[in-house]
């Protein structure tokens, strides 16, 4: 019995030994196992797990954390690592690991199929793909058996060649010494990259001293305004003002000497002439920034303990893209801005070249700027300027000709809507061209009633009003002219009231369409015209010619005789009623290959718009 037990025991020992021997033959080498775990932890961004696979978890954690932070640019860059063990030598207890970092910067579109490769020696860098933001390299390390099991012999160079315990790595974007410029229609510099300095203050700053220095440049900055900004700041700091270099130079030393003041220079795209300010430039700046981002360079740098760069491991030099040539006419832009500057009401001027659709000027005054880009997207009733559309619809329908005699009573009840002329003027019976030039509401309302439901909508589309344009560098709305399904609605729409709305840009496009005989595609960047969501049939040439004749009569013998000294001017005035507020004032005009619209919110008549138009043209 005892012998039997012993035999079973010997058999059990033999089987156990055989299993252990078999497991040992099939198990991967321990250096490979720990290296694979180390690579997997790095690839997943798990710093703690990666550090735990090393012989010095604390030291490894510090270095790897700093590396991840540096390569992620303080959170501004998505740095995605991939580490793979490619070879392991069990006898030498060593391994080879490939490392790859993919950098994605907001606004960039790197090609994922190409790489910048670093060999085991950091000085050898191949940059065969200049647009890439992928950094690949190879590194080596060793492993040893410790009391805690197999561990990576901690050496920062096992993660990145050249990395030491006292250094780190960072990703940084780079820019070229020069940058694309934004040019006006004549090829002159309109905008360029310039240095702007932020004057930042904290709670310890003397707000009176700061305001005394900057208020001559920025009059709205006061000690009180600075104190108010600081009181609501969650960071305890606020930017007092941003200064161009020419403004900063005379006061820079005195500002820098003030306690609690920090000067932070930045580069921004600014107008070369500070007097030029247009809502159209916002979209141009976006195009410029897209090109600047696409051409931005990058570098992976080795940084010493004192923060100095000791070497570049990978990267690509920045490239300079082509200048952006706009269609803006700087001279016209300044004239438009000056024409509006003294108006207290929100005001805008948009000018277009009818033959090409080139946007020549988009101007607003300070009151309008506070509301946003109203010149391009602000919707308002167009009032009597819409009579260009109503008259076009009537002429195309054959219900009247320019010489058709029509009544123009001072006021008339049409379909339950009492329609008055301005100050109830009464012309009796007059030709259509006279009713147009003198802006007879009663005549136009009566014409509109006789039209089909969608006649005004279709006539407006023929002039671009209601068409949606996608214009590179320019965000616009033209207007809305819904079908007028009842006679009362047609009465309102016929005189540019009711549900009809238009932007200054939209009415400038109406004028350009009349001048050109068809609606030109708007264009702000030369060679890049807009695309339209529809292409209505153009208005017959005979009709646009008749409209131009009537618009000329508006200047010579109608509601815009104040501008009759302006050579060759054609136009149409407009006053648009607004509920519980002063009426808006409009003027649309054509002079040769120039079409424009002037809008004055709450002007109470077309007079302020006419005054601004005169200042713009003379």
TrEMBL record:
GO biological process terms, semicolon-separated: cell wall organization
Q: Which UniProt keywords apply?
A: Signal
- Pfam families membership: Transpeptidase
| Superkingdom in the source lineage | Bacteria
Provide the leader sequence positions.
1-22
- What segment(s) does the record annotate as region Disordered? 104-125
Q: Which residues form a coiled coil?
A: none
One Gene Ontology cellular component:
plasma membrane
**Ranges for domain Penicillin-binding protein transpeptidase:** 348-604
Molecular function (GO) terms for this protein are: penicillin binding; peptidoglycan L,D-transpeptidase activity
Q: Does the keyword Cytoplasm apply?
A: no
Q: Write the protein's name.
A: Penicillin-binding protein
Species, as recorded: Rhodococcoides trifolii
């Amino acid at each position: 019995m005892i012998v039997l037990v012993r035999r079973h025991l010997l058999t059990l020992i033999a089987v156990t030994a055989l299993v252990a021997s078999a497991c040992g033959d099939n198990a991967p080498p321990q250096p490979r196992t720990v290296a694979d775990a180390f690579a997997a932890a790095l690839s997943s961004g798990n710093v703690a797990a990666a550090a735990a696979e090393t012989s010095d978890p604390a030291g490894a954690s510090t270095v790897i954390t700093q590396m991840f932070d540096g390569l992620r640019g303080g959170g501004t860059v998505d740095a995605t690592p991939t580490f793979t063990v490619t070879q392991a030598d069990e006898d030498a207890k060593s391994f080879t690991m490939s490392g790859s970092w993919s950098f994605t910067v907001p606004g960039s579109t790197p090609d994922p199929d190409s790489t910048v490769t670093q060999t085991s020696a950091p000085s050898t860098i191949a940059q065969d793909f200049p647009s890439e933001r992928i950094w690949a390299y190879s590194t080596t390390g060793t492993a040893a058996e410790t009391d805690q099991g197999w561990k990576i012999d901690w050496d920062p160079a096992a993660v990145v060649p050249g990395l030491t315990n006292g250094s780190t790595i960072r990703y940084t974007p780079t820019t070229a010494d020069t940058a694309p410029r934004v040019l006006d229609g004549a090829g002159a510099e309109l905008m360029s990259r310039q240095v702007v300095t932020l004057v930042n203050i904290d709670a310890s700053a003397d707000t009176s001293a700061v305001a005394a220095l900057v208020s001559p440049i920025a009059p709205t900055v006061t000690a009180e305004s600075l104190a108010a900004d600081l009181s609501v700041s969650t960071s305890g700091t606020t930017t007092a003002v941003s200064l161009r270099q020419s403004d900063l130079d005379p006061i820079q030393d005195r500002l820098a000497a003030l306690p609690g003041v920090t000067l932070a220079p930045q580069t921004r795209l600014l107008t070369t002439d500070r007097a030029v300010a247009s809502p159209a430039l916002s979209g141009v700046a976006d195009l410029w920034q897209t090109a600047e981002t696409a051409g931005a360079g990058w570098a992976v740098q080795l940084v010493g303990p004192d923060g100095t760069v000791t070497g570049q491991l990978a990267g690509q030099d920045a490239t300079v893209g082509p200048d952006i040539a706009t269609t803006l006419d700087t001279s016209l832009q300044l004239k438009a801005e000056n024409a509006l500057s003294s108006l207290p009401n929100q005001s805008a001027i948009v000018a277009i070249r009818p033959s090409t659709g080139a946007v020549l000027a988009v101007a607003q005054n300070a009151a309008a700027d506070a509301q946003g880009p109203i010149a391009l997207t602000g919707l308002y009733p167009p009032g009597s300027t819409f009579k260009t559309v109503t008259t076009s619809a009537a002429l195309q329908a054959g219900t009247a000709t320019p010489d058709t005699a029509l009544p123009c009573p001072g006021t008339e009840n049409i379909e339950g809507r009492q329609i008055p002329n301005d100050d109830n003027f009464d012309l009796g019976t007059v030709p259509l061209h006279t009713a147009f030039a003198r802006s007879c509401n009663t005549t136009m309302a009566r014409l509109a009633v006789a039209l089909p439901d969608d006649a005004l909508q279709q006539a407006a589309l023929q002039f671009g009003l209601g068409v949606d344009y996608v214009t590179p560098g320019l965000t616009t709305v033209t207007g809305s002219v819904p079908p007028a399904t009842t006679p009362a609605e047609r009465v309102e729409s016929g005189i540019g009231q009711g549900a009809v709305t238009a932007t200054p840009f939209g009415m400038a496009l109406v004028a350009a369409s009349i001048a050109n005989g068809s609606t030109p595609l708007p264009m702000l960047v030369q060679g890049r015209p807009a695309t339209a969501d529809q292409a209505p049939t153009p208005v017959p040439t005979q009709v646009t010619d008749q409209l131009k004749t009537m618009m000329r009569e508006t200047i010579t013998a109608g509601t815009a005789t104040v501008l009759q000294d302006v050579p060759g001017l054609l136009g149409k005035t407009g006053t648009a009623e607004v509920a519980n507020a002063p009426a808006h004032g409009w003027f649309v005009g054509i002079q040769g290959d120039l079409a424009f619209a002037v809008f004055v919110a709450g002007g109470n008549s077309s007079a302020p718009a006419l005054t601004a138009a005169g200042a713009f043209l003379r």
